[in-house]
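Thread amino acids onto this structure.
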Protein backbone atom coordinates (compact mmCIF):
# COMPACT_ATOMS: atom_id res chain seq x y z
CA UNK A 1 0.00 0.00 0.00
CA UNK A 2 1.53 3.38 -1.03
CA UNK A 3 1.55 6.43 1.25
CA UNK A 4 -1.55 7.93 -0.33
CA UNK A 5 -3.41 4.66 0.00
CA UNK A 6 -2.37 4.29 3.63
CA UNK A 7 -3.50 7.84 4.38
CA UNK A 8 -6.85 7.21 2.72
CA UNK A 9 -7.22 4.00 4.74
CA UNK A 10 -6.65 5.84 8.05
CA UNK A 11 -8.91 8.69 6.96
CA UNK A 12 -11.71 6.21 6.29
CA UNK A 13 -11.78 5.28 9.97
CA UNK A 14 -11.57 8.94 10.98
CA UNK A 15 -14.49 9.88 8.75
CA UNK A 16 -16.58 6.90 9.80
CA UNK A 17 -16.02 7.60 13.49
CA UNK A 18 -16.70 11.31 13.07
CA UNK A 19 -19.95 10.63 11.24
CA UNK A 20 -21.11 8.35 14.06
CA UNK A 21 -20.20 10.98 16.67
CA UNK A 22 -22.04 13.63 14.67
CA UNK A 23 -25.16 11.46 14.48
CA UNK A 24 -24.93 10.84 18.24
CA UNK A 25 -24.79 14.59 18.91
CA UNK A 26 -27.82 15.10 16.66
CA UNK A 27 -29.70 12.58 18.82
CA UNK A 28 -28.70 14.57 21.91
CA UNK A 29 -29.98 17.76 20.31
CA UNK A 30 -33.39 16.19 19.69
CA UNK A 31 -33.76 15.87 23.48
CA UNK A 32 -32.28 19.27 24.35
CA UNK A 33 -35.61 21.01 24.95
CA UNK A 34 -34.10 24.03 26.76
CA UNK A 35 -32.53 25.02 23.43
CA UNK A 36 -35.99 25.35 21.89
CA UNK A 37 -36.21 25.66 18.12
CA UNK A 38 -32.48 26.36 17.90
CA UNK A 39 -31.71 22.68 18.43
CA UNK A 40 -33.37 21.80 15.11
CA UNK A 41 -31.24 24.32 13.23
CA UNK A 42 -28.08 23.09 14.94
CA UNK A 43 -29.03 19.50 14.14
CA UNK A 44 -29.54 20.50 10.49
CA UNK A 45 -26.13 22.17 10.42
CA UNK A 46 -24.49 19.00 11.67
CA UNK A 47 -26.50 16.88 9.26
CA UNK A 48 -25.42 18.91 6.22
CA UNK A 49 -21.78 18.75 7.34
CA UNK A 50 -22.12 14.98 7.78
CA UNK A 51 -23.55 14.72 4.25
CA UNK A 52 -20.45 16.47 2.97
CA UNK A 53 -18.27 14.11 4.98
CA UNK A 54 -20.15 11.21 3.39
CA UNK A 55 -19.11 12.53 -0.02
CA UNK A 56 -15.47 12.52 1.03
CA UNK A 57 -15.90 9.02 2.42
CA UNK A 58 -17.30 7.80 -0.89
CA UNK A 59 -14.11 8.96 -2.61
CA UNK A 60 -11.54 7.80 -0.07
CA UNK A 61 -13.10 4.31 -0.06
CA UNK A 62 -13.67 4.42 -3.85
CA UNK A 63 -17.28 3.33 -3.26
CA UNK A 64 -18.26 6.19 -5.55
CA UNK A 65 -17.02 4.09 -8.48
CA UNK A 66 -19.70 1.48 -7.74
CA UNK A 67 -22.43 4.07 -7.14
CA UNK A 68 -21.67 6.96 -9.50
CA UNK A 69 -25.22 8.32 -9.24
CA UNK A 70 -24.37 9.50 -5.70
CA UNK A 71 -21.85 11.97 -7.14
CA UNK A 72 -22.75 15.54 -6.24
CA UNK A 73 -26.10 14.75 -4.62
CA UNK A 74 -25.39 16.72 -1.44
CA UNK A 75 -23.62 19.67 -3.09
CA UNK A 76 -26.56 22.16 -3.12
CA UNK A 77 -27.14 21.63 0.64
CA UNK A 78 -23.75 23.24 1.32
CA UNK A 79 -25.38 26.57 0.49
CA UNK A 80 -27.74 26.07 3.42
CA UNK A 81 -24.94 25.92 6.02
CA UNK A 82 -24.82 29.70 6.44
CA UNK A 83 -28.57 30.35 6.71
CA UNK A 84 -29.08 27.40 9.06
CA UNK A 85 -26.34 28.63 11.41
CA UNK A 86 -27.78 32.16 11.34
CA UNK A 87 -31.22 30.80 12.29
CA UNK A 88 -29.60 28.77 15.08
CA UNK A 89 -28.10 31.93 16.58
CA UNK A 90 -31.30 33.90 16.06
CA UNK A 91 -33.46 31.28 17.77
CA UNK A 92 -31.07 30.33 20.57
CA UNK A 93 -33.08 30.10 23.83
CA UNK A 94 -35.92 32.08 22.18
CA UNK A 95 -39.33 30.78 23.16
CA UNK A 96 -41.83 30.16 20.35
CA UNK A 97 -39.41 31.17 17.59
CA UNK A 98 -41.06 31.40 14.19
CA UNK A 99 -39.59 32.00 10.76
CA UNK A 100 -41.00 34.92 8.78
CA UNK A 101 -41.91 34.98 5.10
CA UNK A 102 -38.91 37.21 4.39
CA UNK A 103 -36.62 34.51 5.80
CA UNK A 104 -37.30 32.48 2.66
CA UNK A 105 -34.89 34.83 0.89
CA UNK A 106 -32.06 33.03 2.67
CA UNK A 107 -32.85 29.95 0.56
CA UNK A 108 -32.03 31.76 -2.71
CA UNK A 109 -28.35 30.64 -2.86
CA UNK A 110 -29.48 27.03 -2.32
CA UNK A 111 -32.09 27.31 -5.09
CA UNK A 112 -29.56 28.82 -7.49
CA UNK A 113 -27.08 26.04 -6.71
CA UNK A 114 -29.76 23.38 -7.07
CA UNK A 115 -31.01 24.72 -10.40
CA UNK A 116 -27.48 25.08 -11.75
CA UNK A 117 -26.61 21.58 -10.54
CA UNK A 118 -29.84 19.88 -11.59
CA UNK A 119 -28.76 19.11 -15.14
CA UNK A 120 -25.71 17.38 -13.74
CA UNK A 121 -27.76 15.43 -11.16
CA UNK A 122 -29.98 13.90 -13.86
CA UNK A 123 -27.12 13.10 -16.23
CA UNK A 124 -26.45 9.50 -17.20
CA UNK A 125 -24.54 6.96 -15.13
CA UNK A 126 -21.96 6.63 -17.92
CA UNK A 127 -21.26 10.36 -17.89
CA UNK A 128 -20.84 10.40 -14.09
CA UNK A 129 -18.52 7.42 -14.26
CA UNK A 130 -16.43 9.32 -16.79
CA UNK A 131 -16.31 12.34 -14.46
CA UNK A 132 -15.26 10.16 -11.52
CA UNK A 133 -12.46 8.55 -13.55
CA UNK A 134 -11.27 11.98 -14.63
CA UNK A 135 -11.42 13.11 -11.01
CA UNK A 136 -9.12 10.30 -9.85
CA UNK A 137 -6.65 10.39 -12.74
CA UNK A 138 -6.46 14.03 -13.79
CA UNK A 139 -3.66 16.15 -12.37
CA UNK A 140 -4.48 19.90 -12.57
CA UNK A 141 -1.86 22.10 -14.18
CA UNK A 142 -2.26 24.90 -11.64
CA UNK A 143 -3.55 27.37 -14.23
CA UNK A 144 -6.70 28.47 -12.41
CA UNK A 145 -9.08 31.25 -13.44
CA UNK A 146 -10.87 33.41 -10.90
CA UNK A 147 -14.23 31.88 -11.85
CA UNK A 148 -12.86 28.38 -11.20
CA UNK A 149 -11.60 29.51 -7.81
CA UNK A 150 -14.93 31.19 -7.01
CA UNK A 151 -16.91 28.10 -8.01
CA UNK A 152 -14.76 25.94 -5.73
CA UNK A 153 -15.12 28.28 -2.76
CA UNK A 154 -18.60 29.81 -3.27
CA UNK A 155 -20.38 27.90 -0.53
CA UNK A 156 -17.61 28.41 2.03
CA UNK A 157 -17.48 32.17 1.31
CA UNK A 158 -21.23 32.36 1.85
CA UNK A 159 -20.93 30.32 5.05
CA UNK A 160 -18.19 32.62 6.37
CA UNK A 161 -20.28 35.71 5.64
CA UNK A 162 -23.22 34.30 7.60
CA UNK A 163 -21.02 33.38 10.57
CA UNK A 164 -19.51 36.87 10.71
CA UNK A 165 -22.98 38.40 10.63
CA UNK A 166 -24.12 35.97 13.34
CA UNK A 167 -21.19 37.05 15.54
CA UNK A 168 -22.50 40.62 15.44
CA UNK A 169 -25.90 39.35 16.48
CA UNK A 170 -24.37 37.36 19.35
CA UNK A 171 -22.51 40.44 20.57
CA UNK A 172 -25.63 42.60 20.46
CA UNK A 173 -28.19 40.18 21.88
CA UNK A 174 -26.71 37.58 24.21
CA UNK A 175 -25.06 37.85 27.59
CA UNK A 176 -24.74 34.63 29.60
CA UNK A 177 -24.56 32.46 26.47
CA UNK A 178 -21.95 34.47 24.60
CA UNK A 179 -19.06 32.20 25.45
CA UNK A 180 -20.48 28.99 23.99
CA UNK A 181 -21.96 30.75 20.95
CA UNK A 182 -18.67 32.51 20.23
CA UNK A 183 -16.78 29.25 20.65
CA UNK A 184 -18.95 27.55 18.04
CA UNK A 185 -18.72 30.57 15.72
CA UNK A 186 -14.94 30.80 15.88
CA UNK A 187 -14.60 27.06 15.35
CA UNK A 188 -16.59 27.41 12.14
CA UNK A 189 -14.68 30.54 11.08
CA UNK A 190 -11.43 28.63 11.45
CA UNK A 191 -12.88 25.86 9.30
CA UNK A 192 -13.89 28.31 6.57
CA UNK A 193 -10.56 30.11 6.49
CA UNK A 194 -8.49 26.91 6.50
CA UNK A 195 -10.77 25.30 3.90
CA UNK A 196 -10.36 28.28 1.55
CA UNK A 197 -6.60 28.44 2.07
CA UNK A 198 -6.12 24.74 1.34
CA UNK A 199 -8.52 24.77 -1.58
CA UNK A 200 -6.77 27.79 -3.09
CA UNK A 201 -3.36 26.21 -2.58
CA UNK A 202 -4.47 22.97 -4.24
CA UNK A 203 -5.87 24.81 -7.24
CA UNK A 204 -2.75 26.94 -7.72
CA UNK A 205 -0.17 24.19 -7.20
CA UNK A 206 -2.07 21.58 -9.21
CA UNK A 207 -2.39 18.94 -6.48
CA UNK A 208 -4.24 15.79 -7.50
CA UNK A 209 -7.94 15.96 -6.69
CA UNK A 210 -7.93 12.87 -4.48
CA UNK A 211 -5.10 14.34 -2.37
CA UNK A 212 -7.11 17.53 -1.97
CA UNK A 213 -10.12 15.46 -0.89
CA UNK A 214 -8.08 13.69 1.78
CA UNK A 215 -6.81 16.95 3.32
CA UNK A 216 -10.16 18.74 3.16
CA UNK A 217 -11.97 15.72 4.57
CA UNK A 218 -9.54 15.58 7.50
CA UNK A 219 -10.05 19.29 8.14
CA UNK A 220 -13.83 18.96 8.10
CA UNK A 221 -13.75 15.85 10.30
CA UNK A 222 -11.59 17.54 12.96
CA UNK A 223 -13.83 20.61 12.91
CA UNK A 224 -16.94 18.49 13.29
CA UNK A 225 -15.37 16.79 16.32
CA UNK A 226 -14.55 20.18 17.89
CA UNK A 227 -18.03 21.41 17.08
CA UNK A 228 -19.58 18.34 18.69
CA UNK A 229 -17.54 18.98 21.83
CA UNK A 230 -18.79 22.58 21.95
CA UNK A 231 -22.40 21.54 21.41
CA UNK A 232 -22.56 18.95 24.17
CA UNK A 233 -21.05 21.59 26.48
CA UNK A 234 -24.10 23.85 26.03
CA UNK A 235 -25.69 24.53 29.39
CA UNK A 236 -28.71 22.43 30.37
CA UNK A 237 -28.42 19.92 27.50
CA UNK A 238 -28.04 17.12 30.01
CA UNK A 239 -29.80 18.90 32.86
CA UNK A 240 -32.37 16.95 34.84
CA UNK A 241 -34.05 20.22 35.77
CA UNK A 242 -34.55 21.56 32.26
CA UNK A 243 -38.31 22.04 32.77
CA UNK A 244 -38.12 23.42 36.32
CA UNK A 245 -39.96 26.63 35.39
CA UNK A 246 -42.59 24.89 33.29
CA UNK A 247 -45.26 25.10 36.03
CA UNK A 248 -44.31 28.61 37.17
CA UNK A 249 -47.34 30.90 37.73
CA UNK A 250 -45.48 33.95 36.40
CA UNK A 251 -46.93 35.44 33.23
CA UNK A 252 -44.77 37.16 30.63
CA UNK A 253 -45.91 40.59 31.78
CA UNK A 254 -45.09 39.72 35.41
CA UNK A 255 -41.64 38.52 34.37
CA UNK A 256 -41.04 41.80 32.52
CA UNK A 257 -42.10 43.75 35.61
CA UNK A 258 -39.66 41.82 37.79
CA UNK A 259 -36.96 42.32 35.17
CA UNK A 260 -37.51 46.09 35.37
CA UNK A 261 -37.30 45.94 39.17
CA UNK A 262 -34.01 44.05 38.99
CA UNK A 263 -32.52 46.57 36.61
CA UNK A 264 -33.76 49.44 38.78
CA UNK A 265 -32.19 47.79 41.86
CA UNK A 266 -28.73 47.95 40.30
CA UNK A 267 -28.95 51.04 38.10
CA UNK A 268 -30.73 53.33 40.57
CA UNK A 269 -30.31 51.80 44.03
CA UNK A 270 -26.80 50.44 43.31
CA UNK A 271 -27.40 47.23 45.27
CA UNK A 272 -24.72 45.44 43.26
CA UNK A 273 -22.03 47.49 45.05
CA UNK A 274 -22.83 45.74 48.34
CA UNK A 275 -20.18 43.20 49.34
CA UNK A 276 -21.25 39.56 49.60
CA UNK A 277 -24.61 40.36 48.02
CA UNK A 278 -26.72 37.20 47.78
CA UNK A 279 -29.93 36.53 45.95
CA UNK A 280 -31.78 36.46 49.29
CA UNK A 281 -30.58 40.01 50.00
CA UNK A 282 -31.86 41.18 46.63
CA UNK A 283 -35.11 39.32 47.23
CA UNK A 284 -35.71 41.19 50.49
CA UNK A 285 -34.73 44.55 48.96
CA UNK A 286 -37.23 44.39 46.09
CA UNK A 287 -39.77 42.14 47.85
CA UNK A 288 -39.69 39.42 45.19
CA UNK A 289 -39.27 35.69 46.00
CA UNK A 290 -35.78 34.37 45.21
CA UNK A 291 -37.05 31.64 42.89
CA UNK A 292 -38.94 34.22 40.83
CA UNK A 293 -35.76 36.29 40.52
CA UNK A 294 -33.85 33.20 39.36
CA UNK A 295 -36.54 32.40 36.80
CA UNK A 296 -36.59 35.91 35.35
CA UNK A 297 -32.80 36.07 35.16
CA UNK A 298 -32.69 32.67 33.44
CA UNK A 299 -35.58 33.05 31.02
CA UNK A 300 -35.73 36.78 30.31
CA UNK A 301 -32.07 37.77 30.68
CA UNK A 302 -30.30 34.44 30.03
CA UNK A 303 -27.88 34.70 32.91
CA UNK A 304 -27.42 33.61 36.51
CA UNK A 305 -27.72 35.86 39.54
CA UNK A 306 -23.95 36.27 39.89
CA UNK A 307 -23.51 36.94 36.17
CA UNK A 308 -26.14 39.67 36.44
CA UNK A 309 -24.55 41.30 39.49
CA UNK A 310 -20.99 41.00 38.18
CA UNK A 311 -21.97 42.48 34.82
CA UNK A 312 -23.08 45.70 36.56
CA UNK A 313 -20.08 45.63 38.88
CA UNK A 314 -17.81 45.52 35.82
CA UNK A 315 -19.71 48.43 34.28
CA UNK A 316 -19.14 50.39 37.48
CA UNK A 317 -15.43 49.54 37.36
CA UNK A 318 -15.22 50.76 33.76
CA UNK A 319 -16.86 54.02 34.83
CA UNK A 320 -14.31 54.49 37.60
CA UNK A 321 -11.45 53.81 35.20
CA UNK A 322 -12.79 56.40 32.77
CA UNK A 323 -13.25 59.17 35.35
CA UNK A 324 -9.68 58.85 36.61
CA UNK A 325 -10.34 57.07 39.89
CA UNK A 326 -7.61 54.56 38.94
CA UNK A 327 -5.00 57.26 39.51
CA UNK A 328 -6.06 57.48 43.17
CA UNK A 329 -6.82 53.84 43.96
CA UNK A 330 -5.18 50.53 43.17
CA UNK A 331 -6.92 48.15 40.81
CA UNK A 332 -7.77 45.87 43.72
CA UNK A 333 -9.29 48.81 45.59
CA UNK A 334 -11.42 49.67 42.58
CA UNK A 335 -12.67 46.09 42.49
CA UNK A 336 -13.62 46.34 46.15
CA UNK A 337 -15.37 49.66 45.51
CA UNK A 338 -17.48 47.89 42.91
CA UNK A 339 -18.51 45.08 45.27
CA UNK A 340 -15.97 42.37 44.45
CA UNK A 341 -14.66 40.45 47.43
CA UNK A 342 -11.15 39.91 46.12
CA UNK A 343 -8.80 40.67 43.24
CA UNK A 344 -9.19 37.23 41.64
CA UNK A 345 -12.97 37.43 41.29
CA UNK A 346 -12.65 41.00 39.96
CA UNK A 347 -10.14 40.01 37.29
CA UNK A 348 -12.14 36.93 36.29
CA UNK A 349 -15.42 38.84 35.89
CA UNK A 350 -13.78 41.80 34.14
CA UNK A 351 -12.09 39.53 31.60
CA UNK A 352 -15.36 37.65 30.99
CA UNK A 353 -17.40 40.75 30.14
CA UNK A 354 -14.75 42.84 28.36
CA UNK A 355 -12.25 40.28 27.02
CA UNK A 356 -9.57 42.39 28.74
CA UNK A 357 -7.93 42.43 32.13
CA UNK A 358 -8.54 45.55 34.28
CA UNK A 359 -4.90 46.54 33.74
CA UNK A 360 -5.18 46.29 29.95
CA UNK A 361 -8.43 48.23 30.00
CA UNK A 362 -6.90 50.96 32.17
CA UNK A 363 -3.92 51.23 29.79
CA UNK A 364 -6.33 51.58 26.85
CA UNK A 365 -8.10 54.46 28.62
CA UNK A 366 -4.75 56.10 29.43
CA UNK A 367 -3.58 55.91 25.80
CA UNK A 368 -6.79 57.56 24.58
CA UNK A 369 -6.34 60.46 26.96
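Threaded sequence (369 positions):
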Amino acid sequence: MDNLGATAFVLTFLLGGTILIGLFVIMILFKAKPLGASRWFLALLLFFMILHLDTFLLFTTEIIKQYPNLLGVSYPTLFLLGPVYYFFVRSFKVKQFKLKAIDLLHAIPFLIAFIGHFKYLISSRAYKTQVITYYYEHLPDGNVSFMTWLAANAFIILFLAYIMFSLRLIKARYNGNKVVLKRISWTLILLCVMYMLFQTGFLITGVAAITAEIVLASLLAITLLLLSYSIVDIKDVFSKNKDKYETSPLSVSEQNTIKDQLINAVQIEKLHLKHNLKIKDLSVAINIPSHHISQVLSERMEMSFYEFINMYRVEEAKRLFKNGTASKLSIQAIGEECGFGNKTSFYRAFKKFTNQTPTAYMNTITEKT
